[in-house]
Amino acid sequence: MKSESSNDSDIPLRRTLNRWRVEDPLPPGFEHRVWQRIEREEVRTSESGWAHYIKTFLEGFRRPALASSYIAVLLLAGLAAGYWQSRIDNEHARQELGARYVQMMDPYQRLEH
Q: Could you tell me which of 79, 98, 76 has the C-alpha nearest to residue 87?
């Protein structure tokens, strides 16, 4: 709750604020840019979750430093995925060659896959 003494101390502040006036004019096109920003924010809030993330991701390519980072991360992710896939393929090939070798040495050996 506010007390009477707090209202009395606010009187000089209120007087000062009432006398204060901004005399500098706004830059040209300021109001138009404000309304554009408001419209962009309204569009962002109306987008679904994935659409917002995709749009944010693609907007990052407008800045060269961030675009370079995206490309580097995607390149490393692609290299890692390729390396992982090649290890799996090589392991399958090694097992297949091992099974063929055993079968070649002992044709009656039963293959178990």
A: 79
Alpha carbons 7 and 3: distance in angstroms, whole number: 7
Angle at 16 between CA 10 and CA 22, to 5 degrees: 135
- Tens-digit pLDDT profile for residues 73-83: 999 999 999 99
Report field, pTM of the whole predicted structure over 0.90: no
CA gap 68, 76 in Å, rounded = 12
CB 74 within 8 A of CB 66: no
Give dist(CA 5, CA 13) in Å, integer.
14
Question: Shortest CA distance to 89 belongs to which of 97, 99, 78?
Answer: 97
Residue whose C-alpha is closest to residue 112's, from 19, 27, 102, 18? 102
What is the end-to-end Cα distance of the chain in Å, rounded? 80
pLDDT tens across 29-55, in order? 999 999 999 888 877 666 667 877 888
